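Researcher: We're teaching a course module on how sequence relates to structure. For the next exercise, students receive a sequence and then see the predicted structure as tokens, so they can try to spot secondary structure elements on their own. Here is the exercise chain.
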Amino acid sequence: MPVRSCRVTIQDMEGVSHTVEVTATTLYEAVALGLAAVRGNEWVVGIAQGFNPVKVRVTDVPVEHEVKLMDFTKWLERKGGSPREVSDRNKIRDILRLPRAAH
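Model: And here is the predicted structure for the students to work with:
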């Protein structure tokens, strides 16, 4: 199973919600890691057992990209290319309210 990034939220006995980020391969692993992290925090006033829900939100692993504006501008001003590339550039030009490039 793939490892997933998860946000685990648990309420303490005073009704305060605590959220931690964990990586886990299963739902129950995420719950266990979340419980372990929250239990070790001095701000948490005990965890009620029984019907106390534990929320697990699975999120994709964040990906960060960096593009130099000069490279972006060169790409945008480029002529031709595949139909998809021309369409992508025209879409971006529309977003930026620039005139579409001539075919």
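Model: If you want an answer key for the exercise: The longest strand covers residues 4-11. The chain has a mean pLDDT of 85.
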